[in-house]
Specification:
- The chain has two helices and six strands, in the order H-E-E-E-E-E-E-H.
- By secondary structure, the chain is of the alpha+beta class.
- It has one domain.
- The strands form two sheets. Strands 1, 4, 5 and 6 form a four-stranded antiparallel sheet that branches. The protein has a two-stranded antiparallel sheet with strand order 2-3.
- A hairpin with a 2-residue loop joins strand 2 and strand 3.
- The N terminus is likely disordered.
- The structure holds zinc ion.
Length: 117
């Protein structure tokens, strides 16, 4: 199987920055403490991308993961982000679709506020 960009619907989900992801967690009262062992440091898997305009300041994006269902289907809920506990190894996953649509709604709200000034 070859990578076919047209079939990949997760594109926008791979452009969520770590900062935005933490904003989502914070505003939705999600704890970044491990739910299993209470360890305070949950690690977000990050992917760094360097832009040509600013090669010394890589932007960190939340790594996008994809479930591979037994029957290969392309569905928005196949995509997710992950918090990882370094102490007990527990992984917490978040629907990329949910995070992305929340952030999109936030951005729309923010731009509406700007227009009202
Ligand atoms: Zn843990």
């Amino acid at each position: 199987m070859t990578t076919n960009e047209k079939e990949f619907k997760g594109g926008p989900y791979s452009r969520v920055t770590t900062e935005d992801f933490f904003k989502f967690l914070d505003k939705n009262s999600v704890t970044t403490n491990c739910v299993m062992c209470g360890n305070g440091v949950a690690i977000v898997s990050e992917t760094s991308k360097v832009s040509l305009a600013n090669p010394h300041q890589p932007i960190t994006y939340v790594t996008l993961f994809k479930h591979e269902p037994v029957i290969p289907t392309e569905h928005v809920l196949n995509y997710y982000y992950m918090l990882h506990c370094e102490k007990c190894g527990f992984n917490t996953t978040f629907s990329a679709h949910r995070v992305h649509s929340w952030l999109t709604a936030q951005q729309m709200e923010e731009s509406t506020e700007d227009k009202n000034e």
